[in-house]
## 1
Amino acid sequence: MSQHPPLDWRRICVQHLRTWVDLLHAAYAGNLAMGMNFTAATMTMQRGEQFLADRLVWGGFAETRLVATFTLRRDEEGWHLNLLAVRPDQGRQGYGDLALSEAERRARNVGAAELLLDTAAEHPWLVDFYRSRGYVAYGHVQKPGKTYRSVLFRKPL
Ligand SMILES: CC(C)(COP(=O)(O)OP(=O)(O)OC[C@H]1O[C@@H](n2cnc3c(N)ncnc32)[C@H](O)[C@@H]1OP(=O)(O)O)[C@@H](O)C(=O)NCCC(=O)NCCS
């Protein structure tokens, strides 16, 4: 049984942009403090607006409060999950798992046969988290401007 109320998933649109950017900053501040400069940690309103235009940005709401988010985008490699985040004051209550499952469901709905994501190789637990949820590492990459090495993961849906 889940310990938390279900979330109402909606596409984030421009009127929620400030709230969404604030959630990303709050969620990713810990990563930044550990020296990992994930894109979300320094998201600007301008860049955020671009994200809304070029990918599917989903928000999980508890009543009017934005609790979790993820984005899906497609390129020549396939569908990517990015910017998974949960409000830090509501962490460790299962929302991260809920958001990951929702992302996989939404990706299947748009025809994805697999989902791609990446995370920081040196993060203390994210690599194990994705592995334990069925993601398989298939390589590493050093992205331009990033202070960490990325592990590339894929999962068949
Ligand atoms: C990653 C994130 C979305 C997880 O959200 P969450 O709501 O705390 O996750 P859940 O409560 O569903 O927990 C899922 C699993 O994550 C792992 N986990 C979450 N927080 C953890 C912590 N502080 N330490 C170790 N493991 C942790 C555990 O494996 C946990 O499973 P378990 O409870 O069965 O052990 C959230 O921590 C977050 O927003 N982090 C900052 C942004 C980020 O790093 N996103 C991912 C970028 S690739």
## 2
Amino acid sequence: MRLIFTTQALLALATTSFGQIYDTFNSITALAGTANDSDPAILGNYYNYWKLTNNKTTYDLTRSDRMPVTSPKVIPMIGSRKQAIIEPNRTAMVIVDMQNFFLHPQLSPHAVNGRKAVQPTLNMINAFRATGMKILWVNWGIDNFDMVTLPPSFLEGFSSNHEMNTTFCTEMGTLTETNGTTVDMGKLLCRGSWNAQPWGPLYPAMVEGLENGTDFYFNKNRLSGLWGAQTPLGLYLQESETTTLFLGGVNSDQCVWGNLIDAYFRGFDTVYVEDCAGTTSPWYAEEMVRYNADLDGFLANSTYVIDALEKQK
Ligand SMILES: *[C@@H]1O[C@H](CO)[C@@H](O)[C@H](O)[C@H]1NC(C)=O
Ligand SMILES: *[C@@H]1O[C@H](CO)[C@@H](O)[C@H](O)[C@H]1NC(C)=O
Ligand SMILES: *[C@@H]1O[C@H](CO)[C@@H](O)[C@H](O)[C@H]1NC(C)=O
Ligand SMILES: *[C@@H]1O[C@H](CO)[C@@H](O)[C@H](O)[C@H]1NC(C)=O
Ligand SMILES: *[C@@H]1O[C@H](CO)[C@@H](O)[C@H](O)[C@H]1NC(C)=O
Ligand SMILES: *[C@@H]1O[C@H](CO)[C@@H](O)[C@H](O)[C@H]1NC(C)=O
Ligand SMILES: *[C@@H]1O[C@H](CO)[C@@H](O)[C@H](O)[C@H]1NC(C)=O
């Protein structure tokens, strides 16, 4: 008897709480205040939405019902979504890990695709700056606190002898450039070290952009700069109300993908700029990135993006 009573009481409770858990549409509508399914062109809610126009061929990413627009640009895409309209004030180019460690020919001789992505990336940087769109450098930059909390999988992954004495933030020694100059490589992907600086012409480009305030630099301590509750990159994107991210860098399937998928999970628009990214992984890893970046957002080629930006100056 007592058992039956308890079971019934529990069932009643469960029914009530399941009702609250599952039947949330109305309360969310009330919360957002403006969820609007009367306009079939809108995907999303008042705070975060796309508007499909031009017979569903153009994705308007400007959120212009809610936020002011400056000079929106129409950008041709090369994936299954063919065209997008972006608001420059809320759009940024994210450049991931194009550091000496990953791109210098002596440190990463196989990074042929990554080095091929450097010139298109420089072109994108110039075009984005000229349109008032920010450049966000997102790089490994391990500090002492990270060393205390990094998981073993990461420490092993970056160790050449499966021991702590060759992993992150251990001295890498010196390197002699082809012109005879010797450089101190510093500590492995440690914040402020030479090996953690952008490679080749990207370094002066970054320094100039940081000085001019067109570029921002973000250290990260995982593949992604957007993992976990709060990261410098995540806070910046939130505070600047950035909605739309073009992404490139190395390696496409590792750190670029990590940032892209986290950005997608968090509700940003992601644009994978194919020729601004590269990997040392097998070809199928790059194919995976392109396949899924197309499903999750947009695919672009720097040549067409830059051309479109110039025509809409
Ligand atoms: C919903 O969208 C339509 C079309 O954009 C607009 O006319 C209408 O005012 C909107 N309704 C609400 C409640 O925002
Ligand atoms: C819109 O697109 C659909 C599907 O591609 C097509 O059948 C239709 O003719 C198009 N309508 C106009 C007005 O272009
Ligand atoms: C957006 O525009 C405002 C006003 O011009 C400016 O202060 C702000 O820095 C811009 N934000 C970004 C991310 O460019
Ligand atoms: C790392 O430590 C091992 C001993 O555990 C030693 O044999 C090896 O030489 C050390 N390597 C470096 C790069 O210090
Ligand atoms: C040698 O080459 C490196 C890498 O390209 C460059 O940073 C450095 O300035 C060069 N040094 C001289 C003396 O030309
Ligand atoms: C930096 O600002 C100066 C002065 O406005 C300008 O001449 C230069 O082209 C800018 N450089 C970059 C990289 O934006
Ligand atoms: C993308 O642009 C590059 C140059 O940056 C060009 O060589 C390549 O053919 C383009 N790819 C496609 C698919 O259009």
